[in-house]
Amino acid sequence: MKIVIVGATGTIGKAVAAALRGNHEIVAVSRSGGDHRADITDKASLEKAFAAIGKVDAIVSVAGGAVFKPLAALSDADFELCLHDKLMGQVNVVRTGWRSVRPGGSITITSGTLAQEPMPGAAAISLVNAGLEGFGRAAALELANENIRVNVVSPPWVTETLVAFKMDPTHGLAAAEVAKAYVRSIEGDKTGQTIDARKLS
Amino acid sequence: MKIVIVGATGTIGKAVAAALRGNHEIVAVSRSGGDHRADITDKASLEKAFAAIGKVDAIVSVAGGAVFKPLAALSDADFELCLHDKLMGQVNVVRTGWRSVRPGGSITITSGTLAQEPMPGAAAISLVNAGLEGFGRAAALELANENIRVNVVSPPWVTETLVAFKMDPTHGLAAAEVAKAYVRSIEGDKTGQTIDARKLS
């Protein structure tokens, strides 16, 4: 399969690329490197990248930032960043990318465990992640008409990220383990699902 | 209890007010009428209304529009409307309202059945409704520190709305039945929950 990874230079993106590379052709898309440059907050840059890449069998999005901050401290600008980066950015990957996906192919986007298991400081991120799961369920119904599957992978805290932030990595899941959920979405037959990466490791 | 209903002139809002009025003091807030005017897309108007109303025991939000349209037809403007009306509008009710709620009180916002059970045409609405459920779960954790409960009510299609739109009302739930979920949120002790209005009727 020819597989586009949007966010290919991130912690999870690199692990997903590594997990797929032996069996598939990978096209790396990133804001800052890879085969094609695109910024998910800039829909035109995604359209340009997909036009240059041509037909593919799968698109994976592992991109998008959001703000972790107590509810009382979240500003209007913080919410706007969350809405337009991780949330609409990934919605835009689906909106701009689906016409490039061959029948029988798939699109996989990324939410996160805070969607269903919040913690203090996660109000904006929980909104974004749960919103992506709702969007994925609905988009899958419509893209079924094009024979394109849509899933959402929900990663837990990633060990490498916890280490980078000098947080306790004990309850993290290694990026290579998280990547298995994306492989399952791409190579399996699920659609409209939120795949909890902890349940596949 | 003194209870603010934001969206008090809508189909569900009127039913919630009717269900609560015998036992509680109702303050009706609406874009177009009621005791105080406020538009949930205009955060300053909410701040002004809450300042005028003073301390309350509960806030209910039953306001917010979103766009029902196939994914391929949803424009950037459609998504922006959804993000800033029903989604951030209700987030703004929580952000601007919680300081007015007395300890022991509650805030109840509104999602909808399409969050978990989508249909074609619901991509933007499913995103909004699921996002509100994620936000509610997270906000409840933080506002527990203030002894304020936060719940989300998920109404199904409302019979009166289906009739108004000349749709088949067979599987709708009457607004008076939907209102029971809000009463449960306000008078009960749940927090951080999404209350499925179909399961209380």
What's the short story on this structure?
The structure is a homodimer of 201-residue chains. Chain A has helices spanning 11-21, 43-53, 76-97, 123-143, 159-164, 175-187, and strands spanning 2-6, 25-30, 36-37, 56-61, 101-110, 149-154, 194-196.
- Which whole number gives the mean pLDDT of chain A? 96
Biggest β-sheet description of chain A: 7 strands, parallel
CATH architecture of chain A: 3-Layer(aba) Sandwich
CATH superfamily name of chain A?
Answer: NAD(P)-binding Rossmann-like Domain
CATH class of chain A: Alpha Beta
Task: From the 3D structure, determine the CATH topology of chain A.
Answer: Rossmann fold
Percent range for β-strand residues of chain A: 15-25%
Helix and strand succession of chain A? EHEEHEHEHEHHE
- Ends distance of chain A: 23 Å
Oligomeric status of the shown chains? Answer: homodimer
- Global Rg of chain A: 16 Å
Largest interface: A-B, 40 and 40 residues
Order of strands, main sheet of chain A, comes to: 3-2-1-4-5-6-7
Give the overall shape of chain A, derived from the CA principal axes.
globular
Number of domain units of chain A: 1
Coarse structural class of chain A: alpha/beta
Summarize the amount of helix of chain A as a percent range.
40-55%
**Model regions low in confidence, pLDDT < 50 over at least 5 residues of chain A:** none
**Number of β-strand runs of chain A:** 7
